[in-house]
Design a protein that fits this description.
InterPro entries: Diacylglyc_glucosyltr_N, Glycosyltransf_28_UgtP. By secondary structure, this protein is an alpha/beta fold. The protein folds into two domains: 193 residues, Rossmann fold, CATH 3.40.50.2000; 172 residues, Rossmann fold. It contains 16 helices and twelve strands.
Length: 372
């Protein structure tokens, strides 16, 4: 089976989901190509789309929240949005690419390629099955105007929301958000710390801010370090934000209990090594933490879908959160110090996590191709 996975570089979460499916499919002997759809129009277009999104999220997140709310108000299954027409422009190029490379099926963890695929199906330009994967714990605006064969969604409790928005229930498959196999395997805390050269017998926090380094990370890190008076260590993963990394390295240069990490491919190992994770409520990082079964404190969300993620996790006791930095620090310290609190959250996580999502998606793709 030859699979095309389409994503785009608006944050790392969608790409991580795509790579998880790619890894699972390749482990079963399938051929997989994963690409940024906008590269079909050249690197300049790809960089423009990614740059616009990341720029808004990092520098004016309240505006992103406003756009999201407007999208929720105007999106409808009865009419097409400007988002659809913008992505439809790539329809013919994508159809040509698929035909030239003889793919059997296409999958996308991102709305934009789903819009393009919808246009292609309408114009009879696509003749293979197409599957979408939702990467947030909500039905984001404009999913309902797309028309793919199936939609893999994060949880069965979201089915009513998707149906209410206009996605047919028979197309919804609540397999979960796919994560790489690293996150489905647990290494002992001692072994992980040994590999990472971290101290053994101390409580340890992991602080993450996503691939874009979103959030008031420097302020939060200073508050957490100030409150850690019992020998706790802090590992801070800064993402791709080199400026924040430089600031933190300078600020904590003489503090040997604070470990500053830039972008890393070893997040799973750091999760194994630490006792509690602080992370913004991105769909992928939250799911990776959930599957890892590590206590979660959610920090400030990017307004929009991350707010929905935070509410979903909080309502099911999968994480705790607060708007206030000092309270976030208190919540993390309580989880480290209180075995009962930590076990209650761990039990809820074990009940709700879906570590087999990637493999289930591959099985779905196999069935769809075999029925063609």
């Amino acid at each position: 089976m030859k699979i095309l996975i389409l994503s785009c570089d608006t944050g790392e979460g969608h790409n991580s989901a795509g790579r998880a499916v790619k890894e699972a499919a390749e482990s079963k002997g399938h051929t997989v190509e994963m690409m940024d759809m906008f590269l079909l129009s050249g690197k300049r277009t790809s960089h423009a789309v990614a740059g616009a999104y990341v720029g808004i999220v990092k520098h004016i997140p309240f505006f992103f929240g406003f756009i999201y709310k407007v999208g929720m108000l105007i999106s409808s299954s009865r009419r097409k949005s400007p988002v659809y027409f913008a992505n439809a422009l790539l329809g013919k190029k994508l159809a040509s690419y698929i035909d030239r490379h003889d793919f059997d099926i296409v999958l996308t963890p991102h709305l934009y390629p789903a819009e393009t695929i919808t246009y292609m199906k309408k114009k009879n330009l696509l003749h293979i099955p197409a599957v979408a994967v939702g990467t947030d714990y909500t039905c984001i605006p404009f999913w309902e105007e797309t028309n793919l064969d199936y939609y893999v969604i994060p949880h069965e409790d979201l089915i009513p929301e998707y149906v209410k928005r206009g996605v047919p229930e028979e197309k919804l498959l609540p397999y979960g958000i796919p994560v790489r196999q690293d996150f489905c395997r647990n290494l002992s805390k001692e072994a992980a710390r040994k590999k990472l050269h971290l101290p053994m017998d101390v409580p340890m926090f992991l602080v993450m801010s996503g691939s874009m380094g979103f959030g008031k990370l420097a302020v939060f890190a200073a508050e957490l370090a100030l409150r850690c008076r019992n020998g706790e260590h802090i590992v801070i993963i800064c993402g791709n934000n080199a400026k924040i990394e430089r600031i933190l390295r300078k600020e904590f240069h003489f503090n040997k209990r604070v470990h500053i990490i830039g972008y890393t491919n070893h997040v799973s190992l750091f999760m194994d090594a630490c006792d509690v994770i602080y992370t913004k409520p991105g769909g992928l990082t939250s799911t990776e933490s959930l599957v890892k079964n590590i206590p979660i404190v959610h920090t400030a969300p990017i307004p929009g879908c991350e707010t929905a993620n935070l509410h979903f996790f909080g309502a099911r006791h999968l994480s705790v959160s607060s708007k206030h930095l000092a309270k976030q620090v208190q919540l993390g310290k309580a989880l480290i110090e209180n075995d009962s609190l930590r076990e209650q959250m761990s039990e809820a996580q074990r009940r709700e996590r879906k570590p087999e999502a990637a493999m289930q998606i591959v099985s779905l793709l196999e069935r769809l191709v075999s029925h063609e």
